[in-house]
Fold this protein.
Amino acid sequence: MGLSKTFERREALFGLAGFMPGGYVVKILVYSSNFAPEPTGIGKYSGEMAAWLVAQGHEVRVVAAPPYYPTWKLGKDYAWPPYRREQWKGVEVWRAPLWVPRKPGGLTRVLHLLTFALSSLPVILWQILWRPDVVMTIAPAMVCAPAGCLVARLSGAKSWLHMQDFEVDVAFQMGLLKGRWLQNVVLRVERWLLRRFDVVSSISERMLGRLRQKGVTEERIRFFPNWVDVAHVQPLAEPSNYRAELGVESDTKIVLFSGTLGGKQGLMVIPDAARSLVHRKDVLFVICGDGVMKPQLETASRGLANIRFLPLQPFDRLGQLLGLADIHLLPQSPEAADLVLPSKLSGMLSSGRPVIATCREGTEIAHVVSRCGLIVPPEDCVALASAIEQLADDIATRKFLGARARQYAEENLARDAVLGRVVSQMQPDFLGESIAAET
């Protein structure tokens, strides 16, 4: 490859935010157990990122499992064949099977991810022949990290590990995995793996700090927050269509939780708070989503007329759904609050509505939400009910905090800015030895 073509390639890779016409097409391999059409969580963001890159003229391949999240049931039409190759919005997707447990817990979650790591190994190794420029492994699942790093080395690509959450830390802090000796071994292996990647990114400043604690050097760390399409989710000028569909009076304040109903979110505080507010006929709780906690939430909500459940809603109605809220709820378990930054928060902020988060002071969630909402202690239903009443009775404060939420989303979480900024942050030595070899 000539020197001029090498610099075209360098400009293309480092200038993805601008996407120079006629630049070298970058070949990006994404390795993620979760991918579109999963409607929430990592699958949603991996899918949006891949489609966005393809729309800018780059080549993207994905090695992923069939869709199963957040219902923990294999997607319709994906039972057979176990391996398949498909096109999705211009992205070439290679699917490898995995075992989906009925009741995901500590050991079953590990086995669940291990099945994908093993079944996808020949598929990801096959991509070496494609000669990608960048191999991005998305965690969870860290069990896929060794193969992702290996493929990058063997194909001459640069390796990128993106940490959506610290699954190892969460598993031990929440008691999903136990044993001091096991924790020491697993954390040592994780630390070794993290230091093998050219780039390691995560979604919040606190999580970047955790990477530093785990031995990742500063020049390898990148900030890669979850984003939102601020044009698709924006403050509504008129009442949401969902109000009429639910038969809700115009003066009723809607307290909304929308997202995955997972175990690390402290969701049981919602029916407890609703029970404390049954006397408030002008306050209605709406829980929208699916996940392993849904049966428990429904059981705890029996007999409460001030709670409604909605199934997962289509993406094209997301703006209307989030605009239904007068107040958004963001509950978190105390063990996980600083190890994850919920992806659902970006949509809440973009909708221009205030947020009440149940988390400890000083956490990343508290740092963001304190600008545009209220913070209450985790698992404290009395404090949560009090905060809800406070905002329900103060429309001026709701409007003020909602405006600040929207401003934060526009300035920090807009999709095009986030995806463009992340790639433009790559340093000139990112191509390293591969550029020297080609010249």
